[in-house]
Q: What sequence folds into this?
């Protein structure tokens, strides 16, 4: 299977990224802004968005980014452990106009430490930085300080205006690409043949059964 | 999570917001596999409003992982000195601490990320019901599988040779291809022919009507049943009906065949297989949990499913068994995500106080321990949801703890972390399935029980369930309640594993680094052939089978009763309709992987939900 895959590979590296954070902080808006360059002001939940694919060029490499959304499961703190499987990077998002979402960053960080791979890269994102000064509850300095404490990069973004959204995602991709090379090697060397992905392989099965 | 209870953050266990109290089409209590299947299907296919709650703080209940679940009630290692070689980071330590049951919680918690230990490990087959649901529901996006590389049946060798010593086990490989049958030194020529004849017949039945076209018939290495083997070219075909001695007819032998066990059927004329071969087919192919498991129905159907599964995904994967990466707990979670992506609201830590069927208003009321009243048209109740007061339900809809206690049987499970493969160092024999029939166990402690088979499944690093150079072995066996837990697996532990690395002296046997055992209720008594009402179903939790098949069968049957248009749905035989119908082919470009994106339509919140979120 590995050989069949590499023959017409449309990308060099696959990076799996996750969005995490309280509901309403704008995770899906960040994702839609980055993948489709769209923004909607109407309040939507993340229902229906599973993940988005975006392929970018990074140092002459085609990097396919698979960015997963929480599917609303963060609303009651019920993210499945399975959500974290195989993730190379996690974008932990809070809302600069919402103090609670900032306080909860520590909880999410614990969640990430408990479930994500040790090698997974994390960055902290303060979203909605386009807001009026009067509405801002979390200063940039506090965001920077918390990110420093965790030892992760920090971005203030605006999904609405698009400010620094591209930068946040591509810096994440850059950090993960170096890492994922070794990851890929590990999984190939694990022995016992490749993994079976039902969708790819079921093709063969359905083909033979319908002729 | 529970270990963070005391850090002063009260809202840690509180939901981030409260879910809407409007009426739901379906409320599902529990996140086990059957519950998740119903929730995801109702949400995605039925377009129903679904609320999926669980009283626990983790997904899956008995289909979840041990690292997140509780429930070790007895220690496996009575009288054993078990070394712990696992530190917090999962590295192997020099010193051997002795595990006591008190250490388990903290050890498990510290190993959470390195190990994925299922409460009730199960695998799927390439062409079974679970695989069908995974493919059609798009849950495949969240799951990856490794093949189960090899199956073995255990044979006891204490036939006088091992003077007084407890019987040693010998692992006899179960032949998976024609070549392996021919090369097998254990099989006599007569038996080789008999087995080939039997499998050929089974395969003809299995592939009847599938329209599978078999090409070359001369490839001796092709798995039995794989497209390309010679059998279908053979003109001599038995009538499908007589193969499993289906139904009465005038055949004198068939009247008794209804009660014939799978094993007896294989050993009797005209199959005339030896006991070992019969055990191999009955327990490693049909996965019968008992030597008395009846031929009719499940066992013969599983044989056919197994044969269809072999080579289903091409010649690189001739094996039938598929192990979910990170363990079988991922499967229920994948369906929970399918439900969430389709709009279902999921919330953990939601214990329920009372459920009441209000016939006058034709809905069911669910009262949470938090005091919230929720209503729904249909209610699904899973296991491990605590004591719930049930009002307005018939007696046979209620499963009380007392009824569970009165059951004669229980399911015993043990999980071992070991340092080497139990079937030698062969590269290709790390992920293996072993059936240990009672006949192979003269040394077992309880002599009066000769019915139940012990299943052992070994996982390696590549299954992502354990770190490099370690193995996880799941043991599962049904028994009478009267048999003490520590006796159930004692002879197996003695024979296959070694307790401690003795004074640096290397034994060939795998050393147990960590282990635990526990007992779960036998759910077979709770499994009903058909569900009675169209507004309520109750699922019993994980059964003693090694595949998901029975659980999916149960979920399908329940789904038919809850949502089937057919008034006769409950009289339909168990399981006929899949929960997720096969998606129509959308043309070739859909097949290209890079076309796959995970987004569907976004759904606007209704006013209730909008108000709730705005109030935050």
A:
């Amino acid at each position: 299977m590995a050989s069949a895959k590499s023959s017409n590979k449309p990308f060099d590296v696959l990076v799996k990224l996750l969005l995490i954070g309280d509901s309403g902080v704008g995770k899906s808006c960040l994702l839609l802004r980055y993948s489709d360059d769209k923004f909607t002001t109407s309040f939507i939940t993340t229902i229906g968005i599973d993940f988005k694919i975006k392929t970018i060029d990074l140092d002459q490499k085609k990097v396919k980014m698979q960015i997963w959304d929480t599917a609303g499961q963060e609303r009651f703190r019920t993210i499945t452990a399975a959500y974290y499987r195989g993730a190379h990077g996690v974008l932990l998002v809070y809302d600069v106009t919402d103090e609670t979402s900032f306080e909860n960053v520590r909880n999410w960080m614990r969640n990430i430490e408990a479930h994500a791979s040790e090698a997974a890269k994390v960055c902290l994102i303060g979203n909605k930085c386009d807001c009026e000064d009067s509405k801002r509850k979390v200063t940039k300095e506090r965001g920077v300080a918390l990110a420093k404490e965790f030892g992760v990069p920090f971005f203030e973004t605006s999904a609405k205006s698009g400010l620094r959204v591209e930068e946040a995602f591509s810096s994440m991709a850059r950090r993960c690409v170096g890492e994922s090379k070794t990851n890929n090697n590990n999984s190939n060397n694990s022995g016992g043949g490749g993994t079976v992905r039902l969708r790819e392989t079921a093709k063969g099965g359905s083909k033979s059964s319908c002729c | 999570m529970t270990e963070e209870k005391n850090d002063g953050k009260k809202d840690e266990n509180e939901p981030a917001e409260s879910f809407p109290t409007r009426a739901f089409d379906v409320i599902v209590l529990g996140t086990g596999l059957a519950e998740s299947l119903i929730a995801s299907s109702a949400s995605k296919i039925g377009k129903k409003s679904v609320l999926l709650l669980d009283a626990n703080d983790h997904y899956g209940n008995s289909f979840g992982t041990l690292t997140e679940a509780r429930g070790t009630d007895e220690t496996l290692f009575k009288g054993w000195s078990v070394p712990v070689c696992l530190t917090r980071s999962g590295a192997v330590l020099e010193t051997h601490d002795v595990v006591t049951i008190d250490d388990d919680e903290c050890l498990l918690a510290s190993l959470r990320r390195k190990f994925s230990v299922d409460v009730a490990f199960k695998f799927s087959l390439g062409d079974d019901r679970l695989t069908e649901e995974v493919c059609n529901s798009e849950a495949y996006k969240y799951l990856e599988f490794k093949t189960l590389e090899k199956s073995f049946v255990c044979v006891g060798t204490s036939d006088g040779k091992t003077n007084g010593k407890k019987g040693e086990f010998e692992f006899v490989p179960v032949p998976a291809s024609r070549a392996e049958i021919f090369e097998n030194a254990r099989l006599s020529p007569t038996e080789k022919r008999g087995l080939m004849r039997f499998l050929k017949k089974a395969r003809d039945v299995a592939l009847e009507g599938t329209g599978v076209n078999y090409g070359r018939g001369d490839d001796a290495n092709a798995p039995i049943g794989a497209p390309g083997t010679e059998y279908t070219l053979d003109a001599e075909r038995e009538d499908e009906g007589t193969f499993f001695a289906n139904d009465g007819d005038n055949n004198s032998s068939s009247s008794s065949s209804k009660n014939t066990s799978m094993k007896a059927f294989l050993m009797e004329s005209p199959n005339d297989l030896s006991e070992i071969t019969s055990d191999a087919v009955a327990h490693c192919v049909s996965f019968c949990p008992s030597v008395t498991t009846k031929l009719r129905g499940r066992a013969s159907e599983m044989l056919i499913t197994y044969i269809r599964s072999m080579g289903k995904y091409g010649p690189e994967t001739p094996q039938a068994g598929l192990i979910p990466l990170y363990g079988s707990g991922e499967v229920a979670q994948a369906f929970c995500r399918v439900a969430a992506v389709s709009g279902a609201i999921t919330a953990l830590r939601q214990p329920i106080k009372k459920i009441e069927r209000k016939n006058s208003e034709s809905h069911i009321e669910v009262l949470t321990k938090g005091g919230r009243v929720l209503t729904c048209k249909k209610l699904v109740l899973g296991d491990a949801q605590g004591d719930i007061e049930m009002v307005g339900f018939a007696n046979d809809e209620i499963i009380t703890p007392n009824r569970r206690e009165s059951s004669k049987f229980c399911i015993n499970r043990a999980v071992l972390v070991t340092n080497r493969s139990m079937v030698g160092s062969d590269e290709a024999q790390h992920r293996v399935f072993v059936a240990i029939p009672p006949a192979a166990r003269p040394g077992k402690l309880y002599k009066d029980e000769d019915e139940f088979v012990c299943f052992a499944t070994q996982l390696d690093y590549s299954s992502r369930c354990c770190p490099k150079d370690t193995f996880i072995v799941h043991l599962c066996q049904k028994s009478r309640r009267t048999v003490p837990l520590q006796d159930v697996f004692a002879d197996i532990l003695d024979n296959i594993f070694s307790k401690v690395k003795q004074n640096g002296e290397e034994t060939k046997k795998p050393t147990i680094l960590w282990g635990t055992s526990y007992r779960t209720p036998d759910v077979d008594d709770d499994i009903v052939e058909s569900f009675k009402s169209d507004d309520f179903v109750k699922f019993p939790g994980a059964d003693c089978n090694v595949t998901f098949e029975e659980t999916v069968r149960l979920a399908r049957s329940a789904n038919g009763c809850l949502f089937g248009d057919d008034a006769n749905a409950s009289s339909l035989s168990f399981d006929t309709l899949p929960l997720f119908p096969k998606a129509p082919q959308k043309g070739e470009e859909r097949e290209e992987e890079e076309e796959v994106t995970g987004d569907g339509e976004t759904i606007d919140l209704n006013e209730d939900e909008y108000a709730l979120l705005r109030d935050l």
In short: Residues 189-207 of chain B form the longest helix (19 residues). Chain B touches chain A through 81 residues (CB under 8 Å). The CA atoms of residues 208 and 279 of chain B lie 26 Å apart. The mean pLDDT of chain B is 73.
